Amino acid sequence: MDTRVLLIVTATLLSALPCMAGNRDDVKPSLPWGAGAYGLGRLGGHDLDMARWDWVACHSGDVCPEQLKFINHLLEINPRQKYLFQLTGGLLADGLPQHGNKMNFLDYHFDAKRRESFLVRLKSQIELLLTTLAKPRNIAALTFYEELPGHWGEWHLLRPAAMRQSAPATQAAEDTPRAVDVARSLDPFPAFLKPYQPHIERERGQPLVWNEETWRYLGQIYLSTLNDIHRHIKEYSGNLPVYYWLHNGMATLDMLPPDWTFDNATGTECSVKLSDIIQPGVCDGLMFYPSTVERWQVMRPLFEKHNWRYFGQLWHPGAMRLDTWDATVTRLKDPNPWNQGYFFYCEGGGCARPSDLNDPDMMAAEARIRQRCITPVVDEREGSAMRIANTDPDGLPFNHQYFSEVHPKNHIQGGRTYLWSLHMRTNDIQDSPRPSGRGAVFMMRWFNKTAQIREDWLVSKFGTNDWQTFSGQIKAPEDAVDCAFFLMLWRATGEAWFTQLSLKLENDDREWVGNGCFDKAAPSPFKFDYWYHVDDTLALSHRRWFCNKHHVGDDVVARYFKLDIQLDKPREGMQAGRPVEIAATLTNTRDAGLYEDPKSADAHQVEARLIVPAGMKLVEPAPTDATTLTAGASLQRQWKVIADQPGTYILRAESHSADMPGSAADVSVVVE
């Protein structure tokens, strides 16, 4: 070979080495790739469905004992399951009152007292997590809030001056586009910035004006506060992985095109670099949304250049996904060494916003759920009403939250007292077996210009009740500008009817609720709220449907047995003072088709118990020692019971085992 050719080839290979380093074999994910669920769902429900995922993103507010108890239960089913814990909720409750007490990066930077209080809360949350979780080593990562910088930086409120001046001052308010209306209201600066204007001017030594220099200055404050929080999370957690959760609508400096300038900014740019956030000893990776090909083409080179690990997210709702299902899944399954897997977002109401990318089968399923559960009706006594029901025999009663949302026809006047009333009747409203429901509910939410600021739970009813009138008075928060009424079944079964909904200012007869009688002929105030409407029966069918049809997870990881118990009524009538035999059947069942047994053998030590109410006693209790029961096998248990007085009694049988979940069954008996 010619010497010059050899030198050229050698030089070419050497020059390629730095590029090849990003794909080197020793860059491995810290955990096996897998598919996960976004959120724990409603605690206590669908444990089998939740346990089958490789990952779970836990984001239901503060880390709390109830949440960790449920996660420990999932770990009993699937000891390999990993978790991404989002630190949030009460951690943000130390901000200024005029901001709804929601803390932001300026509070943290300028107010030492609020900063220290925040860090105390953060430390206690992490300590609770590490001391209560059965397998702390199963924590895949911790993240501070989600979709940043929005919740921490409120960057969406920092619009360029050009946008704020884009609408003529003479334009009618009702014709003003929302974005321009918001932008104009921020002149000269958004509300969250104003309390710290003196601090900023003193720190910078110049008057506060909106320009690129100010924009970049605020980015440095945001960056320093975020990095400080990430360092504290690592310190408090013993150096667990920390991930940054990037908002899909925001772009950092290293994501912007080369020709971008501040003059053509849209307000979606954040004046920091991801590489200044994700760095050794501070932050280990990120959550991101590969929503479009363009987004992916920007992000993948960054992963390759910096060797950042990442989690993706897969949405069921097409309006969030922004691309076809198959194309999104292909990006999420990209076989590169930085890909940790993805979380699957799906819940009832997920198709509420129409999109050409929504799955038509799921749209039809949701329409059937809504039509069955929430309908306008005509009541014989009250006329037009709204019926909300959970009567699905296959549903899980502690997981249904159906509601309609009604907004007043005028803006709320902050600080004023309002009189509210409504008529309601209920039929067989039952609570969750694990008490957490509120039954049939009337609730109000209050909002200021930027966020929800308070909830008031005004009515909660169980059982069967004829039409009743509920009323009261309530003072609106000082900065409230809007409110919403929620008519709900909150984790309960049964039916509820609502009508005559009314809201009036004190000493003012004008009605603030339009169509409070839910007249079919009038414009309906009823709507489904995209973010809060939850029907977990539908969510369960979603997940299993996707698992079967679209292969969300390549492997079934959850393995599960469960004890089922059936309690039979006595074959003969009961009479006071006469013993009667009660029989129960206990079965060691496998959830066929989805799960496998994690134990080395299919046999389990089990026990059945009968619980008798007051006024009844056991005459011949069964032996209490446990019995070995193999998979699919059943055993009979018999007890003799006696009642001293006539009446109706509820007997309860329970199944128990040290290494598998049990169940319970009730039976009603009449004693003559």
Describe what this molecule looks like in 3D.
With 672 residues, the chain is an alpha/beta fold. 26% of the residues lie in helices and 29% in strands. The protein is built from 16 helices and 26 strands. It has an eight-stranded parallel beta barrel with strand order 1-2-3-4-5-6-7-8. It has a five-stranded antiparallel sheet with strand order 9-10-17-12-15. The protein has a five-stranded antiparallel sheet with strand order 14-13-16-11-18. A hairpin with a 3-residue loop joins strand 9 and strand 10 (383-390). Helix 5 runs parallel beside helix 10 (212-237). The radius of gyration is 29 Å and the shape is globular.
Topology:
Blueprint: H1 3-21, E1 34-38, H2 47-51, E2 55-58, H3 65-77, E3 82-87, H4 105-110, H5 112-132, E4 139-144, H6 150-153, H7 161-164, H8 178-185, H9 197-204, H10 212-237, E5 242-245, H11 274-277, E6 285-287, H12 293-306, E7 309-315, H13 318-321, H14 325-332, E8 339-345, H15 360-373, E9 374-379, E10 383-390, E11 400-406, E12 417-430, E13 439-447, E14 452-461, E15 463-475, E16 482-490, E17 493-505, E18 534-535, H16 536-549, E19 561-567, E20 580-590, E21 604-611, E22 616-620, E23 627-629, E24 634-643, E25 647-657, E26 664-671
